[in-house]
Amino acid sequence: MNRARQFGTLIGLVGLCFVLWILTPYFLTVSNLLNVAEQTSINAIVAVGMTFVILSGGIDLSVGSIVALAGVVLGLALHDDRSLGVALTLTLGAGAACGIVNGILVSLGGLPPFIVTLGTMSIVRGAALLVTEGRPISGFASSFRVLATGRAGFIPAPVIATATVYLIASLVLTRTTFGRYVYAIGGNEEATRLSGVAVRFHKTMIYGVSGVMSAIAAVILTARLNSAQPIAGMMYELDAIAATVIGGTSLMGGEGTLAGTLVGALIMGVLRNGLNLLGVSSFLQQIVIGGVIVVAVLLDTVLKRKHRG
Amino acid sequence: MTAQPPVLEMRGIRKAFPGVVALDGVDLSLHAGEVHMLLGENGAGKSTLMKILSGAYRRDDGEILIHGARVDIEGPADALARGIRVIYQELTLVPQLSVAENIFLGALPARRLGIVDRRALHARTARLLDDLSLAIEPRTRVSRLGLAQRQMVEIAKALATDSDGGPAATVLVMDEPTSALTNREVKQLFGLIHRLASRGVAIVYITHRMDEVFRIGERVTVLRDGRVVATHALNEVTVSELVRMMANRDVAEHFPKVQVPRGPELLRVERLSRAGALDDISFTLYAGEVLGVAGLLGAGRTELARAIAGADRFDSGHLYLSGAAATLKSPADAIKRGIGLLPEDRKAEGLVAGLTVTRNVALPHGRRLAKLGVLSPRGEEKLARPLSDELRIKATRTQPVRLLSGGNQQKVVLAKWLAGGVRVFIFDEPTRGVDVGAKVEIYNLMNRLTAEGAGIIMISSELPELLGMSDRILVMHHGRIHTTLERDAANEERVVSAALGLDGGTPGQPTPDGAAG
Lengths: 309, 517
Known about the structure:
The complex is a heterodimer. Chain A is mainly α. Chain A has one domain (about 45-260). Chain A is about 75% helix and about 5% strand. Chain A has helices spanning about 1-25, 30-55, 65-80, 85-105, 115-130, 140-150, 155-175, 175-185, 190-195, 200-225, 235-245, 260-275, 280-309; strands spanning about 135-140, 150, 155, 225-230. Chain A has a two-stranded antiparallel ribbon. A two-stranded antiparallel ribbon of chain A has the order 2-3. In chain A, strand 2 (about 150) and strand 3 (about 155) form a beta hairpin. In chain A, helix 2 (about 30-55) crosses helix 8 (about 175-185). The longest helix of chain A has 27 residues, at about 200-225. Chain B is globular, with a radius of gyration of 24 Å. Chain B contains 18 helices and 20 strands. In chain B, helix 5 packs parallel to helix 6 (about 185-200). Chain B folds into 3 domains: about 1-85 and about 170-250, Rossmann fold (3-Layer(aba) Sandwich), CATH 3.40.50; about 95-165; about 265-500, Rossmann fold (3-Layer(aba) Sandwich). Chain B is an alpha/beta fold. At the A-B interface, helix 8 and helix 9 of A face helix 10, helix 11 and helix 13 of B.
């Protein structure tokens, strides 16, 4: 059933590509497709963390703010003449720390994830603005910018990074105890606790994963823009949630796959790209994308109902 | 009664799901005013049949006649309009709302601007409850009612359209309505069922309890593997005949108890207390014994189980495992020390519905099965296969447990704790909602466990089971251990009087009796 659902989303993506190809032949050129993949990479990576969190029955609204703060940490570290390795470690550490704070408030504090991450969304954003006094940190060495501009053969570095993240995260989700507990906690938290699983610890770590994913996205974003901006990542949480949900992950937790999320992110990326190519106004784009989200979830619900009946 | 045409007739009903034929040509006819028992093991097709009746499923083949006319039940609303009411095992009331609001939830009487007409609502509810001779106050919040009363409200809700000029209920289906009720509550419920039947409502009653079958049923239909084995008037058959029809194998003894010599002390509980739930509980569990725990709902039995299993904190008291003091801060701690809990509510606490059989069984053993956090599917399978074979779990191990019947789900929860390491088993209502055949399998399993030196604490609301399987019985009352009965001294009367808090039941109060709570 889950597989059929994923297949459906994939068919949607292929169908969308086909329509765009007919409307604008340029869509299906290698350079444009690579462009789409590159533009999708940031949302796709943030959506990995979101998928972990949603699978466990939670939600993380703070991802966009964490992208901004992690980017600022990265920018400061690089301007401070730290080595790239140290700067990246600090960046990922900052993301992890933000996520773990979310996780602790959710699991030990027993607060609803929506409220916790709504709060930290504002706190983390404020911290990023405070540290930078609202100004972007720009101009980095090309040895760093190669993380976004570099290519292996003809494949852009961000696409390689995305593929690597998805590969590792999929293995974690399907092949490790941690991944199993993500599904189990989302499916039935109390039964999982009574099975002797350290639920609080794992929940904390799940939000930590989300924070790290946001930090990875921040690295790519900062390298691409050649600038770390405290106002970066606005609305990323909504894009990530949309990709996850279009990809078939249940907001109730316990059901979903990363492959679905990747397809969901690609649908959004392709749609944006196609609408741009067609010269559709950005105002209208918002309406179309919102419509696609609702239709995707509607189809999902209808299909599931049929299967049950 | 049999001379009248049936109120409802199902002929040759067939329903298949991918891979399974759930119903294969089932006939069932219901007469006005009869209480028709529906029996069958888990997976026999009872639930599917009732879901077709309630409109939740569409039949693949066969026909349904109401008052002799062929009909198509197109959905739940259509079933309601045709006078069919179904009360499922899981209650569907909203606890935060009042009795009246729940009963008329779909049709609240309103004045202009959608303001609820409370006076009309309460009057109508009072009339309905009065009509059913139920002493429940319409304004009471459902969360403040006991389970039996909620059950009654559920029935009232099902019948509500009656007094409303809507379609009258002609068929009422009840799926194991007594599984959570005490004996006295069961009596109330049966009174209500009799009153309904005497008004001509045909009642389909699904149960696993043989005593109930004979107490209130007039006719019985036995299902097995999606087919009707037989329909009989209940004065024509015996319990053992029915059991044989259901199981197709003789369950020679209902309680195949094997007594094992008492071994060393496994678990000692001293002066365990939790405000409002447990009051100064002390007892000892020995290897090789089944320690039954009796008591009414709310006596603290489940609270005791959860406290020992590390699921809930307690205020004071001590636990000793094989003589050594143990602090259990979490279920993980308890499991590490060899305590496994089979929780009362398996859906809410025992299983992750979306995970497969194998993965549920392997869930407590993740750490042991994984190398550096990486799970091997083969390792999980190797753990789950022998257990699911031994317990005869009738399902593919790659099926989500959501799709399994109640008895099979319970076996999956059991399998979780059999994979090793557990010496103290706490079974909270191990056979609730489980069919006769599976019950015997669970009893045999308990025998095997005690023979291997484990100790079992078995909480049960079924007296025959407690008396049949326990070596000793603790009877709880208001959070305290009221009496402890040895197997030879235990009988139904003594357990019941102790559970009610009555004195003069039995000699022997081995527990230190602290200050009154």
